[in-house]
Write a structure and sequence with these properties.
Length: about 475
């Protein structure tokens, strides 16, 4: 293998899959300037022969590089490093901070929200496919945990979360999201709102400016307002958060709350140039970035994108995850990964304010993860949601195609149906709610002017083409 690039030394004994090793090597080579913008990289076939691997292994790594924007394909001209990365080359070589050792081992505020809404309504946002959850496995693990309960287990739980669950999350994030963290960096919370409260108490002061996406997730803005923060709405387009708009309108903000994998609610992914620009701003401004990765596992066009936190070289990104979307909302468990330098601060705040959730539930979740059920469940749900998204889009499109356009999306758990003609999303969403459906209007999630009209409809519990067409006809009658 005399032509093999020096940076492509793979470890066949490592737990990390070979395709991810290839991806990581190329990503680091680009970040460190070993591969320059527009540099051509070997074809998948040639590199597979050179490394003695199956072609599919290299293609999987290349697909991830293309999806995240590191490289682009040019047909017969081959695959090259993305030219747009040139303007970020000066910051790409920033050395990574020392990491702690790794152990082995959303409803709106619209008028409709004032009345209670059953959670099993069609199109209910944020509700996973509960019919597909492995309840028998869960019940068996729960019964075993209860039988094994000792007197010590009934005392006050660890304020930052149970050690086995923190270790399981750290291992999962390393393999699935490219996040290199120690269990001590993982803090268990009782949900996204508790996570955000922990961040504001630990790192921010009343009056601090905070970037929020527009359109965005209303509870984020409401919680920040209650904490005394000054909100700075930042526009979102097809490439995600418009960082230049945030810099122009609120350059001295102390934090940014973003959803890079699937922007909430537009489901677009934050492009690589925008990710680098956001990290540049945070470094220069001394600001914090909270990466809300609420459903990053569910990407259907390619493999899930690595987390924004995996690109962080300055310890400015806090990664927020949740079990509500991948398990079920009633589990009431989420987690936050903080930079190594902030662990002591968050331990101090957690002792006073955090609510990590019942120890018994944490034990069940950690067993669910450590015994492999969690990874298998995500894989099953990814296939199921890809199929249900197709069923919902085709069924609704067949009935409503003259009035609504369904946005193409790489992932997520809901559809964005753009309004055509003179229809307005708020009026139609209200009629749908009165008709027993759970609909959200995109314009209700916007603060900036020129809000587009669109419906936000979850597809996770639409299981047949007949059901999709039936719901489409109900919407059509309301139009």
């Amino acid at each position: 293998m005399k032509n093999q690039p020096d940076f492509l030394q793979l470890d066949t004994t490592a737990a990390e899959p070979l395709y991810r090793q290839i991806y990581t090597r190329f990503r680091n080579a680009i970040a460190e300037g070993l591969l320059l913008p527009e540099a051509r990289i070997p074809s998948a076939r040639a590199l597979a022969l050179e490394l003695g691997l199956a072609r599919g292994t290299v293609e999987a790594a290349y697909s991830l590089l293309v999806a995240e924007g590191y490289v682009e394909t040019r047909g017969q001209a081959g695959t090259v490093v993305t030219p747009a990365l040139a303007r970020h080359a000066s910051t790409a070589t920033t050395p990574a901070p020392a990491r702690a050792p790794r152990a082995r081992a959303h409803p709106t505020t619209s008028a409709a929200s004032a009345m209670p809404t059953p959670l099993n309504r069609p199109f209910q946002m944020g509700l996973p496919a509960l019919d597909a959850f492995p309840r028998k496995v869960w019940a068996r693990l729960a019964a075993r945990a209860i039988r094994a309960t000792q007197a010590d287990d009934m005392a006050y739980p660890a304020f930052a979360g149970q050690a086995p669950l923190r270790a399981a999350i750290a291992t999962y994030l390393q393999l699935s999201r490219g996040i290199d963290c120690a269990p001590s960096q993982v803090f268990i919370t009782s949900g996204y709102r508790n996570t955000l409260e922990l961040v504001t108490r630990a790192l921010l002061q009343p009056g601090d400016g905070v970037w929020v996406e527009d359109p965005g997730f209303p509870p984020t803005s409401e919680l920040l307002k209650q904490a005394g923060m000054k909100l700075a709405p930042v526009a979102v387009d097809a490439d995600g958060l418009v960082v230049s708009h945030g810099v122009a309108t609120a350059p001295r903000a102390r934090a940014a709350i973003v959803t890079p994998a699937h922007q909430s609610p537009l489901c677009v992914a934050l492009s690589l140039p925008r990710r680098l620009a956001l990290l540049d701003w945070a470094r220069q401004a001394g600001a914090w970035i909270v990466e809300d990765d609420y459903d990053g596992e569910y990407r259907y066009a390619s493999r899930p994108l690595p987390a924004l936190q995996s690109l962080d070289r300055d310890g400015r990104v806090l990664y927020a995850g949740t079990f509500s979307k991948v398990l079920f909302p009633a589990v009431r468990l989420a987690y936050l990964v903080v930079p190594p330098a902030q662990v002591a601060r968050f331990e101090q705040i957690s002792q006073t304010f955090a609510a990590a959730g019942p120890a018994l539930m944490q034990t069940i979740v950690s067993d669910f993860m450590n015994e492999g059920h969690f990874a298998r469940h995500i894989q099953r749900m990814r296939r199921l949601y890809a199929e249900r998204r197709r069923i919902a889009a085709e069924g609704l499109g067949a009935v409503l195609g003259k009035h609504l356009r369904i946005d193409p999306q790489p992932g997520g758990m809901h559809l964005v149906l753009r309004m055509k003609g003179r229809h307005t999303d708020r009026a139609l969403a209200e009629r749908m709610r009165q008709d027993g459906m759970a609909a959200l209007a995109l314009s209700e999630r916007c603060v900036l002017p020129h809000a587009a009209s669109a419906l936000l409809l979850a597809f996770t519990n639409i299981d047949t083409p007949q059901r999709a067409r039936e719901l489409g006809r109900r919407i059509l009658r309301l139009m």
